Amino acid sequence: MGALITKSEFAAARGVDRSTISKWISRGRLTAPALTPDGRIDAEIADRQLGASLDPVRHLGQQHRAKPAAPPPGAAVEAFGPAADLLRAKAQIALIAAEERRIAFEATRGRYTLTEAAEAAWAAALTEFLLDVENSLNDLALALQLDHRQRIQLRRWWRQQRLAAAERNRLAAEQAPRYVDDPEVA
């Protein structure tokens, strides 16, 4: 058996008016053994009965409107299990949708871009640059008056430079974080 309290105390603890408790009793949502012959309420049994008989979402909305103030810090706040889970899930869905809309808006302003698009653009620009350098090696060889053997050495040197740079970049990519935080979100 739980704590026996008055209707007024039970109403205050649940954040509803005393008349709401009377309505629950008249509608059969609160019955014996939660109601004692002396008019008091066994809070533990009453909570179980209410959890099974009330529309949880509507009840939590009524509780929220009726509460005069937030509970003091550190106080335990109990919600009706499935209803609280449902409300948390809906709130999480709303937060995700809002974040998706914010990101889409920022993308239209040019603040965000898809990683794949940025990587493809960077790869295309880098490839074009490297081809320009490689194609200009013949012009460099002619300007330096290099013979055939020296031009081959120049091309080998260039390929070694490209391979070394590619390996450094591969190692750096392995060490880079998978996700980068947005400083404006934090």
Terminal Cα span:
48 Å
In round numbers, the mean pLDDT is 79
Radius of gyration: 35 Å
Strand order of the largest sheet: 1-2
Largest sheet entry: 2 strands, antiparallel
By DSSP, the count of extended strands is: 2
| H/E series | EHHEHHHHH
Low-confidence stretches: none
Tally of helical segments: 7
Q: Helices and strands: which structural class?
A: mainly alpha
Structure summarized in a few sentences:
Helices cover about 65% and strands about 0% of the residues.
Structure description:
Helix content is 67%, strand content 2%. By secondary structure, the chain is mostly helical. It folds into 3 domains: 4-75; 79-112; 115-175, no CATH class. The protein has a two-stranded antiparallel ribbon with strand order 1-2. Helix 1 (7-14) packs across helix 2 (18-26) and helix 6 (115-143) runs antiparallel to helix 7 (148-175). The longest helix is centred in the C-terminal third of the chain and has 29 residues, at 115-143. The chain is rod-shaped, with a radius of gyration of 35 Å. The two termini are 48 Å apart.
Please give the structural blueprint.
Elements: E1 4-5, H1 7-14, H2 18-26, E2 41-42, H3 43-53, H4 56-66, H5 81-108, H6 115-143, H7 148-175
Antiparallel strand pairs: 1-2
Helix pairs in contact: 1-2, 6-7
